[in-house]
Amino acid sequence: MTTETHGHPIFSWPPKPREIATVLFGFPGLLWPWPALYLAVAVLQWWAIGASVFEGDVSPIAFVELFAVNLLALVTFVLAFHYFLYVRRTQGLKYKYSRQWPEKHNRRFIYANELLEGVFLSCGSAVGVWTVYTFALLWMYHNQMLPGAGTDTNLFWSAVTFLLFPFWANVHFYFTHRWLHGRVLGKFHRVHHKAKDISPWSGLSMHPVEHLIYFSAVPIFVLIVPTHPVLMIYFMVASALGPTTLHHGFAAIKLGKGRTMMTDHYHHYLHHQFGQANFGATNLVPLDLWLKTDYQTMQQRKSKAPVEGLETT
Ligand SMILES: [Zn+2]
Ligand SMILES: [Zn+2]
């Protein structure tokens, strides 16, 4: 089903220029289509409300406006996947990892409904944490408390931070995710793992504590790396919308006229199926391979000796 490899061409040695170019400019790649779309959303948000918060408007109305534009972006994006893939089912089960559709009645979920729980947690807690972090960081920019406070940060450096963030986000996700599978935080992460057969609304279906941890990748990054405020908003948008592209449950999306777009996230699908393996969101930084927590290695180890804790939490 999957075409995903365990390594990543970016880290191949000797370097493979053609593969690296594909990672950068491919469809999908590090620039197109999702990052370009997220950047467009970030620019619109900056224009709608971000710039005035950056200039010092930290009134409750400005916060509500920021919450509203975040909510609008999230609902529009997730609904597009949900409507075409799960309501109209435009491609049926073609490329779907599981033959199942989300459960409609199961008491494990809030309102006994998987979809409603995903909508509730995404639109409430996730958008709330996303908004609080963005609002607080814009206030810090205004008060010259961040290294990228000047909006005149040079273009070359902005391009570097634009490309650097996905690598950092991968590393942050891997280690915080392993932490979330530990004894202390496991009870919070269990909320995200209720969904075995993932769907678009599963992406941000997390406990509020996990939202605080998950979105912290952006504040940590901009506290250390000088970042243009519009790029900070872009990183937040990418963090908020990205989980949908990781959880919609299809290896590829049919675009019409026989064209398909690979959207492979089999790596994370297996994580939802089997629990203690594949902690990385993607293999952009193949930490699962390097730290031997990828599903294949875990299975090989399991076949030699029982692996404790390989539970489907
Ligand atoms: Zn997990
Ligand atoms: Zn997940």
TrEMBL record:
Transmembrane residue ranges: 20-49, 61-86, 115-142, 154-175, 212-237
Give the subcellular location. Membrane
> What Gene Ontology molecular function terms does this protein carry?
iron ion binding; oxidoreductase activity
Respond yes or no to whether keyword Membrane is given for this record. yes
**Sorted alphabetically, which InterPro entries does this protein's record hold?**
Fatty_acid_hydroxylase, Sterol_Desaturase_Related
Q: Which residues form the Fatty acid hydroxylase domain?
A: 163-292
Alphabetical GO CC annotations of the entry are: membrane
Gene Ontology biological process terms in this record: lipid biosynthetic process
Keyword Acetylation found: no
**Keywords of this protein's UniProt record, alphabetized?**
Membrane, Transmembrane, Transmembrane helix
Please state what the protein is called: Fatty acid hydroxylase superfamily protein
The upper taxonomy is: Bacteria, Pseudomonadati, Pseudomonadota, Alphaproteobacteria, Rhodobacterales
